[in-house]
């Protein structure tokens, strides 16, 4: 057989999802039509009939940046809590540590802006590594991102619910149920499409960003805190025996604060979700995210030093800053409520990025092909549902406790950051486009920073649970490899990539299981005589007193009807229905090896969904037995039971 070459060695269609229809591919057109008229470019709005289901830059900021935006609620606090071990002197290093994180943020934003341009089909670090670092490295990058996205959902939801239960302690015992309800809400919005979720989250995002920026602006003009009501009566967490501020403490503070950088990569992973020109819109979204996040992080750190804030038990740093800037008034509660809502909704970043990544993995045969399917609204529905299911399991396992999940967070994303930067260095060395040396230097510097950060995060959080991620990463990669090998075996058996032999006609015989005479039986025989050269009807009989009258009635009615099709009785000593039919088909196959055998199973389809509960499922039982024990073709005939016309 002649071999059909594919551009990337993958099968043209997934072996288990290829539709049974013939499609034609239109020839590629140039930039001008036959008469010189311009033709829409692929990255232009005119070429996008589904543009309304894709993101604008502003919608992308709301849909894909919530994780990063919400991190300002716990990033500075993580730094302060580590530095508190050195007493009030240690808190003076909050701003320098934050500035170091801001430098890393700037490098990451600049780098991912380049990734968006170089890999406009999305996938982020997975796409970069797959092209420039090899298959195994790409799978490690994909596994790290997958873990981080799933953990982001669980951490974000638990953090938002923790803020709610802090305000209303009576809800504390119901936190798992509330977490699952929030997750269900976010999942439902994303099943309607990423644009709908972006529209729903646009206002909460704007309120949160506006509240934080206003708090920073007002606080900079205050010489002293406006109020300290929230911290009054709470014990300070400053260490009694303060340690010295050494390199190790600063590295731990830096690692803790790096949790604020999770989500920076989400825009690069979901470029195909943007409207055309998708590349430019995604780049603008990435820059806007970096600017807003950097300003908020630095601004909050300045206020921490300005107000000489000390962390206390039971009160967040952000709440103390809101109290100090606005006073304990309405604006304070606006900040708290906006923070609570955004923390809970920050999980949406994962719902925007992970299904796209899973779609790419499915296209490359590393995940089931079902994850590559899109619904009408450009939704990777199965990816959304899988993410929700795993996140729900984590929420139940952790009991809705954020502290159980946080130590596992952020490690995976830094592995992805480092792999992506190294891959981009190789990309620029191969492309050698204008100013490639400067771009490669930027990515190399980013790889150094993120690599060091990954080591620091691993070392400081290893005993707190990070070791679980180090175990899960290779297990995920082994799973990807196993799926890939399975698809390779399927492709070999199906002869994918090779021209098959010309079709040839074979004698056909259609077997129709029946149990009684009805319009359904008549429709089944009509279809059978249209499909096959030969048709035989079969019925399973049981030699018991209660079954004999029905068997004799069917035999008598069949003779009266005389449809021209033989009715063959298959006696069964047990109450089994599917096995006798499967055994008969097996015998036919052995006796007539050149005959194409089809089992046509008639089934009534109720007019209403609830009426399916009334069906006896005989068709499903027969189909299962025939599929399990034979190689016959199974055809299930649906006879629609339309409701009777209403008389008014």
Short key terms for the protein model shown above:
648 residues, mainly alpha, 5-stranded parallel sheet, elongated
What does this structure look like?
With 648 residues, the chain is mainly α. The chain is built from 23 helices and five strands. The protein has helices at 57-64, 66-70, 75-83, 87-91, 94-118, 125-132, 135-167, 175-191, 194-220, 247-257, 266-269, 278-306, 317-326, 330-345, 348-363, 381-398, 402-405, 411-431, 436-494, 519-531, 548-561, 578-591, 618-629; strands at 508-513, 534-541, 566-571, 596-605, 633-640. Strand 2 (534-541), helix 21 and strand 3 form a beta-alpha-beta unit. Helix 7 (135-167) crosses helix 8, helix 9 (194-220) runs parallel beside helix 12 and helix 13 runs antiparallel to helix 14 (330-345).
Protein topology:
Blueprint: H1 57-64, H2 66-70, H3 75-83, H4 87-91, H5 94-118, H6 125-132, H7 135-167, H8 175-191, H9 194-220, H10 247-257, H11 266-269, H12 278-306, H13 317-326, H14 330-345, H15 348-363, H16 381-398, H17 402-405, H18 411-431, H19 436-494, E1 508-513, H20 519-531, E2 534-541, H21 548-561, E3 566-571, H22 578-591, E4 596-605, H23 618-629, E5 633-640
Parallel strand pairs: 1-2, 1-4, 2-3, 4-5
Helix pairs in contact: 1-9, 1-12, 3-10, 5-10, 5-12, 5-18, 5-19, 6-7, 6-18, 7-8, 7-14, 7-15, 7-16, 7-18, 7-19, 8-9, 8-16, 9-12, 9-13, 9-14, 10-19, 13-14, 15-16, 18-19, 22-23
Region (Disordered): 1-50
Protein name: APC family permease
Organism: Streptomyces nigrescens
């Amino acid at each position: 057989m002649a071999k059909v070459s594919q551009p990337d060695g993958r099968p043209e269609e997934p072996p288990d999802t290829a539709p049974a229809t013939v499609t034609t591919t239109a020839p590629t057109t140039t930039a001008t039509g036959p008469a010189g008229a311009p033709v829409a470019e692929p990255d232009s709005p005119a070429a996008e009939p589904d543009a309304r289901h894709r993101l604008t830059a502003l919608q992308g900021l709301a849909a894909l940046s919530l994780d990063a935006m919400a991190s300002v609620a716990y990033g500075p606090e993580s730094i302060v809590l580590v530095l508190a071990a050195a007493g009030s002197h240690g808190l003076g290093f909050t701003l320098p540590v934050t500035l170091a994180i801001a430098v890393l943020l700037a490098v990451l934003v600049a780098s991912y802006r380049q990734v968006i341009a170089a890999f406009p089909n999305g996938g982020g670090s997975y796409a970069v590594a797959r092209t420039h670092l090899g298959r195994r490295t790409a799978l490690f990058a994909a596994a790290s991102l997958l873990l981080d996205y799933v953990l982001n959902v669980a951490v974000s939801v638990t953090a938002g619910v923790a803020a709610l239960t802090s305000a209303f302690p009576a809800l504390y015992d119901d936190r798992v149920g509330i977490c699952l309800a929030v997750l269900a809400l976010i999942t439902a919005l994303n099943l309607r499409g990423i644009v709908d979720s972006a529209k729903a989250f646009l206002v909460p995002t704007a309120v949160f960003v506006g509240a934080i920026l206003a708090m920073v602006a007002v606080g900079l003009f205050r010489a002293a805190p406006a109020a300290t009501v929230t911290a009054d009566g709470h014990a300070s967490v400053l260490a009694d025996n303060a340690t010295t501020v050494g390199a190790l403490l600063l590295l731990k503070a830096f690692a803790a604060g790096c949790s604020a950088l999770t989500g920076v990569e989400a825009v690069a992973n979901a470029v195909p979700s943007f409207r055309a020109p998708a590349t430019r819109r995604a780049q603008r979204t990435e820059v806007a995210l970096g600017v807003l996040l950097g300003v908020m992080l630095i601004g909050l750190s300045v206020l921490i030093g300005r107000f000489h804030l000390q962390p206390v038990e039971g009160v967040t740093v952000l709440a103390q800053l809101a109290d100090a800037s606005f006073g304990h008034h309405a604006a304070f509660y606006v900040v708290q409520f906006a923070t609570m809502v955004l923390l809970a909704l920050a999980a949406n970043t994962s719902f925007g990025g992970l299904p796209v990544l899973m779609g790419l993995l499915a296209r490359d045969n590393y995940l089931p092909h079902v994850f590559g399917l899109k619904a009408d609204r450009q939704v990777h529905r199965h990816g959304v549902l899988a993410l929700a299911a795993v996140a729900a399991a984590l929420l139940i396992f952790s009991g809705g406790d954020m502290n159980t999940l946080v130590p596992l967070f952020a490690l995976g994303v830094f592995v992805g950051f480092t792999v992506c930067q190294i891959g981009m260095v190789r990309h620029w060395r191969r492309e050698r486009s204008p100013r490639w040396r400067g771009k490669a230097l930027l990515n190399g510097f980013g790889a150094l920073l993120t690599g060091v950060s990954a080591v620091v995060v691993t070392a400081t959080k290893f005993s707190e649970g990070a070791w679980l991620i180090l175990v899960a990463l290779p297990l995920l990669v082994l799973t990807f490899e196993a799926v890939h090998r399975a698809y390779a075996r399927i492709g070999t058996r199906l002869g994918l990539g090779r021209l098959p032999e010309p079709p040839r006609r074979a004698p056909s015989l259609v077997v129709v299981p029946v149990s009684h005479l009805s319009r359904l039986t008549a429709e089944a025989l009509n279809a059978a005589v249209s499909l096959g050269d030969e048709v035989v009807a079969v019925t399973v009989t049981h030699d018991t007193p209660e079954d004999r009258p029905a068997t004799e009635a069917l035999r008598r009615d069949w003779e009266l009807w005389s449809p021209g099709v033989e009715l063959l009785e298959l006696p069964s000593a047990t109450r089994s229905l599917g096995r006798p039919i499967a055994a008969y088909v097996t015998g036919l196959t052995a006796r007539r090896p050149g005959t194409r055998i089809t089992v046509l199973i008639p089934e009534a389809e109720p007019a209403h969904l609830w009426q399916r509960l009334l069906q006896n499922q005989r068709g499903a039982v027969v189909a299962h037995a025939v599929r399990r024990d034979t190689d016959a073709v199974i055809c299930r005939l649906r006879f629609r039971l339309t409701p009777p016309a209403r008389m008014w």
